[in-house]
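Batch job 17 of 40 flagged for manual review because the log was empty.
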Amino acid sequence: MTDTLASRLQPKHFSLIKAVAETGQLSLAAHDLSITQPAASRMLADVERLVGAAVFIRTPKGMEPTAVGMALARRAHGLLEEFREAAREIDAIKRGLIGSVRVGAVTGGALGYIVPAIRALKAEARTADIHVDVGSSGQLISDLRSGQLDFILGRIPAGMDARQFDVRHARIEEVDLLVHQSHPLAFASKLEMNDLVHFSWVMQGPGAPVRQAVENAFIETGAAIPSDIVNTTSLLVMIAMLATSYAIAPMSNEVSDLLCRHTTGSGLCRLDIRTPIIVAPYHLITLKGKRSTPVAERLCDLVLHEFMTRRGE
């Protein structure tokens, strides 16, 4: 009997019980619920039929709850709030404002597009669970294919079949050369690549896109590739080397902006070089046929919005 009653009483029934208990009048309760009094009367009759007992009794002062009515009225507020909370949660899930998303990006893409998109998402949904992996495109692609990442900003490695991915919106990375402000070339103008050969360098290992772009800049200008190189993927190691030596470190423009413009006291600055250094474009990449969660779709949309904003569209 209890299970049958629980399955048949509906939110509208509890709304009516709550309204009648609070107003003491069926007509006032009907007005609060935006229904007619005859409709409210029929609904109350349905409740009493389902319960098998009177819920309210009429008195000269109005409608007074019976013991059954008082028990239902006590529960009504909490039950209705639970229904409203469930509706809000479902709406938030549908709109991508709750849940978990894991995204990966190369360093420039992470700082330039993922971070602003996360700020925008958090303004809408503070409880969204967001994970960001920053690494090489090879590792990011591997994690995307294994299902560990929802989408990435990266490059498809040479030799890999690109048909398994949805690839959108090319984004180039511009490379800045960073040094400490005490470096002999720190404030020089229009430096040639040949001016940089004999200094020590700290950068990613051979084959990394930024490393390739730097080496190509030396080759295209006829300069020798530096021989004094420390190889590392750690940004902290690069910063430490710059702070304690005359080393030069190539970094994406987004990283150099963070270190030279937005971080006070870093002591780092960009070299003024004559030849721009451009890295091969990266893209927003998803695994073809993979179904995304609403929150992942929302973050992806915000990243695309950042792309369009930067292009002035």
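Reviewer: the log was empty due to a logging misconfiguration, but the result itself is present. The radius of gyration is 32 Å. Unflagging and moving on to job 18.
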